[in-house]
UniProtKB/TrEMBL annotation:
Domain MOSC: 32-169
Name under which the protein is recorded: MOSC domain containing protein
Any one GO MF annotation of this record: catalytic activity
InterPro entries on file: Benzoxazolinone_Detox_Enz, MoCF_Sase_C, Pyrv_Knase-like_insert_dom_sf, Tri_helical_YiiM-like
Pfam families: MOSC, YiiM_3-alpha
Lineage: Bacteria, Pseudomonadati, Pseudomonadota, Betaproteobacteria, Burkholderiales
Organism superkingdom: Bacteria
């Protein structure tokens, strides 16, 4: 396919893992924008850390992308909360304009600078957002609105910086926008036909288990540990 410009990088961000709100917990959700080009490889943005490597990071969550386009809607809903003053409120590595979940598809390959990335999964928001925003149900709000952001795996390492174009270079699953995936995940979670369609995609192991459980048991997994508290 011919390359198509989807949007533009507004900031590249990274953070250090520090003690967080729950005893024994750590998080790098608070990230700072980087000036100039920064290296990205299979582990993610150089210098970025994860507080809990069991749940964050790894090849299928190497780079987290959250659209700056969503910030006005969050300000309207929540007011002028300090995290929304600039990019990084959601712990994202890539902030951008012009591209949201309805314009990106599962498995899309995009180039930013010299880095080639592949959309690996949507974000399943967790309780650390509740603490970050001081809103007890923030993770559930993110989930319900579909403004979740997404993760990439790194196909070709390179460097990226603010101002780089986000160019679509491959789209193997045009019928599976991220918005549709989110609809299945949270709003039509036991639709067998849609789950079978999702199962045919290249899914990370945790997603394979999730879909298989729903299909086998006809029941929803428990979200409370992921979304509750903070």
């Amino acid at each position: 396919m011919n390359p198509t410009v989807l949007g533009q990088v507004t900031a590249v961000l990274r953070g250090r893992a520090v003690p967080y709100s729950r005893p024994g917990s750590r998080s790098a959700i608070v990230k700072q924008a980087i000036q100039g080009a920064v290296a990205v490889d299979g582990n993610g943005v150089a210098g970025d850390e994860q507080g809990d490597t069991r749940l964050h990071g790894g090849p299928d969550k190497a780079v987290h992308h959250y659209p700056l386009d969503h910030y006005p809607a969050w300000r309207d809903a929540l007011g002028a909360l300090p995290p929304l003053d600039g990019p990084g409120a959601f712990g994202e590595n890539i902030s951008s304009t012009g591209i949201v979940e309805s314009r990106l598809c599962w498995g899309d390959q995009v180039r930013m600078g010299s880095v080639l990335l592949e959309v690996a999964q949507t974000r399943q928001p967790c309780w650390k957002l509740n603490t970050r925003f001081g809103v007890p149900d923030m993770a559930l709000r993110v989930q319900r609105t579909g403004r979740t952001g997404w993760y990439y795996r790194v196909i070709e390492p390179g460097a990226v910086q603010a101002g780089d174009a986000i160019t679509l270079v491959g789209r193997p699953n045009p019928e599976w926008t991220l918005a549709r995936v989110i609809e299945v995940l949270y709003h039509r979670p036991l639709d067998v036909a849609l789950l079978n369609g999702l199962a045919a995609l290249r899914l990370p192991p945790s997603w394979q288990r999730l879909v298989a459980h729903r299909l086998q048991h006809g029941a929803l997994e428990d979200w409370s540990a992921r979304t509750g508290g903070g």
